[in-house]
Amino acid sequence: MKPAILILLFSVLFVSVSYSQSFETDSISKKEISRLNFMTGKWQGKGWMMGPDRQKAEFEQTENIQFKLDSTTVLIEGLGVNNGTVIHNAMAIVSYDKEEGSYNFQSYLHNGRKGEFKGELIDGKFYWYPNENMRYIIELNEQDQWFEVGEIRRDNGWFQFFEMTLNRME
Asked: How far apart are CA 61 and CA 91, in angstroms?
């Protein structure tokens, strides 16, 4: 008899908790994420990155960017290839943190590295910061291309180590 009562009690508790959840879309997050609409689509192009030896390595890049969860998040999937070798395989999820008033950029790499970083939209450009001395800036250029640069702070200035220009495929 006791197991039946416990099952009934847990069933009632589960049903009441599941019905107490809100199923409405977070309108603030949706509004702020919608400002990243310029990034969505399928993109393809080229880029370069500079290693510690200050030599540029070129690559071909694709990006697939979509709104998810009723447009309250953005899913970014990127793949970079150099001479048939994958050099960059990443996924990121961008959401909006209402308490902080900023974007949250969660990054996942194929080598197992991951991180959660601050993002912000400044004058139509999306900035995200892996740390206080590094930033990536994404914008659409005059040709309506994805243009992204990566910079590192050195001696009170910013030094560019990464650049990518992509054309919208879809």
From this structure: 13
